[in-house]
Every structure is written in C-alpha cells, then in structure tokens.
Amino acid sequence: MLLHGKSAKTGWMKELTGCWRELLFWMLPLPAFGALGSMRPRRQIAGLIETCAFRLVAISSAGKLKSLGLEFASWNRIGRRAAAACVAAGLVAGGSIVVVASLSHQLLGTRSGWNEAAQAITLGPVLEEVIFRGYLLTAALLLTRRLSPSSSVASSVLGVAAAFSIAHLTTAGTTALQLCCILLTGCLYGCIRLQYRSTAAAALAHGAYNLALYLSYWTGISH
After folding, report:
1. φ and ψ at 72, to 5 degrees?
2. Fewer CB within 10 Å, N- or C-terminus of the chain?
3. Global confidence as pTM
C-alpha cells in the first residue's frame, strides 16, 4: 500500500510537471502576438518573423514533444488529406458566415491592418485552439465522462464552444448574431478536434475560416 501510494504521488507530480512545461511552450508566441499588434512598423515586421518561426516549430513538433507533456493539448500531426479537409471545412464555414452577414447587413468584425490579419489567420487560431479545443475540451471530456458518460462528447463540445463564444464578448461591438456564429464554428472546431484527435487540425480549420472572412473583406464582398 505504501509503495502504491508513492507511485501514485510520483505519477501525479510527473503529470503536473509536464503540464507546466507544456504551458511554458505555448507561452513562447505571446511576444510575437504583442509585436504584431504594435503600432510601429518595425515591431510588426519583427512580430511577423517571430510568428513564422513559431509556426514552423509548432508544425515540425506536432506529435513529437511527448517529453514536454504536449499530449495534454493533443497537438498531434495529421495527414495531408486530413489537413486539406480541415482547410476546406474552414473555408466553407467562413463563406457561409459571409453570406449570413451580407444578408443580415452585419459587419464581420475584420480589421484593415495587415498585422491584424496576420494575427487572425496564423497565430490567433493556434493559441485559441490550444486553449479551448486543447486544454478546456480535454478537461471537459474528463469531467463529463464521470457525470454523464452517454452525452459526454456532445455536451463537452457544446460547453467549450459556448465558453469560446462568451470569451468574444470582450471584443467591442460584438453582436448577438456574431456570437451565434462563433458558437457554431466552435462546435465545428470541436468536432474536427475529436475526428482527427488533433488540436492542430482545429487550428487549421480556424485559420482557414478567418482567411475566408478576410478574403471577403479585401475583395469588397463584405465589411
């Protein structure tokens, strides 16, 4: 019993240590995120370079950094077909939202600065998906499987999508229709995350979705 207790305690401490190492890893792009949002052109360019560098590291390390505990966020590698399917899903979802926004005469919330577009298309989706479809969805699944095993997946995806939508209330001017769209896309990202067992897949779809919004903005289809 004593040995068993020590083993359990050691295992718990290892998991905690791995989680902290992982959190530190995902904090690496925060300076790049801040630089991209700067008003100074040099800082913006530096932020873009840092963003590209982190993306390369994140892509190359998918499924390889188990020693850092990255399994908590499920940042796993996916195949080319799966990646293409995720990008297509994001573009279709973005196109659908553009149509809804045009018919309802509502703004998409896109901004004109290239640095803000870079944030939304490249770095933002990675950080948001790691938080919501990585940590929060993993925690939600563990919790709901104990409370209600029969509906754990659906309730977890919907609950995290709701939290994702509520988090966007901090953005000034967010409308009720935009929140509904964010809720639906949050469910889409959750389903993609579970389908491919990878938060990287959800980040790809999220980035493609934001790209579709910006393409419609740049081409004058929406505002």
Report:
1. -65, -40
2. N
3. 0.74
